[in-house]
Amino acid sequence: MDENLANDLAELPALLDAVRASATDLLTGIDTRPVARAPKEVGPEELPEHGVGLRRALALFRERWEPGFSGSAGPRYLGFVTGGATPASVAGDWLTGVLDQNAMSGEDSTAIELEQQTVDWIGRLFGLDQHTGAFVSGATMSNFVGLAIAREWLGEQRGISVAQAGVGALGPVPVLSGTPHSSIVKSLSMLGIGRDSVRLVPTLPGREAVDVARLGKALAALDGRPAIVVANAGTVNTVDFDDLRAIAALRQRYPFWLHVDGAFGAFAALSPEHAALVDGLGEADSVCVDLHKWLNVPYDAAVQFSRHRDLQLRVFLNSAAYLTAPTGTPDFGHLVPENSRRLRALAAWFSLTAYGRDGHQDIVRRNISCANNLAEQLTATGLLRLTAPVRLNVVCFTLADRATAERVDALAEAIAETGETFVTPTVYEGQPALRAAFSNWRTTDNDVDRAAKAITAAALALA
């Protein structure tokens, strides 16, 4: 055995204690760590020929690389929609690496049963009792899987199997949506359906929610041709929601597959005051839910849900002499793109077991409250204005005066330089703007106060 490997094995308990101490130092110091850092090139390193062992590698990482990492796990990182990691999910993620299960087959482990149970729990959170699902790496792959099943359904309507004949046998595919996320378009490209297949349907005035009447007209214009409709349960910029119940009702007149992108907006179901926003979610043929956002588990973790497991199996069937043929409940290797796959479910199982529905409901409701608090503080100064109402957990705002792209970008940079908070730029209705997204389990009103002070100071410096 290599000398470094042998030494690390002999010292393993002490080395794990050193890693634990390092992780503890990072997590307990997250409140004082700069939230964002301007990337600075560290410089190249030669590939080690002999290695230095784990203890020295840990020291080198903390010295060379860790200082340049952002505080994205902390309570004032408001960029994108980035959740943190609850204590229980961190434990689950660590044990995921320790146990190193290949959650593909149920032949040698109960890992598959744990994933099935965890998916069932998550489905219950969102009222998806009639759906089955599987863990994937994130919202992009969740949308990809849902649309892949939709592609197979379209072929079935035309008497072909796309899984067997290929996408070329399908012909043009109409994909209708009001405000599709970029991962939808990316997935259509990967699936061979094509980016140009997207047909944007007008949205309601001043909204990102699709105009259902106009959607009905677009479907009618297809003269009975089956289509894919992508609906939103929470758009990225303003967290707007399509009327899912009304869209689903259109299937009484027109044939289409309803895919709902609920990456983080589906979590509105956990807030009694906002649950009506996702009314009708259970009517969808496929649903995307991203867990490393609002469930606050470590990257990478999401779930795809579908009501059509038979079609899903047809798409992702993995046939080989050394694999068990799917019977009854198929192994996950027959249901998702990956063959080998880590046990992503364990971190979610730990967090759901430790905190339950009530604990995760608390995170959602506090985050929504914090978003409204920040909006009130920012607009009270007169320096900033909202570009859309706060519907859930995102504050979309811009400069009240001379909101050019250059000035808004400068504001974003100035905010990041404070180290107090981090927000990301966007464009909404042609207007350069910034987004503050709340999804971290640690965030409190004190964090909102600190973020608001930093944003206001940066805006004042530009005035």
TrEMBL record:
Names of the cofactor(s): pyridoxal 5'-phosphate
Lipid metabolism among keywords: no
Keyword terms of this UniProt record: Decarboxylase, Lyase, Pyridoxal phosphate
Domain of life: Bacteria
PROSITE patterns documented for this protein: DDC_GAD_HDC_YDC (PS00392)
InterPro entries in alphabetical order: Aromatic_deC, PyrdxlP-dep_de-COase, PyrdxlP-dep_Trfase, PyrdxlP-dep_Trfase_major, PyrdxlP-dep_Trfase_small, Pyridoxal-P_BS
A Pfam family it matches: Pyridoxal_deC
Xref: PANTHER family: GROUP II PYRIDOXAL-5-PHOSPHATE DECARBOXYLASE, MIP05841P
Family listed: Belongs to the group II decarboxylase family.
Protein's name according to its UniProt entry: Pyridoxal phosphate-dependent decarboxylase family protein
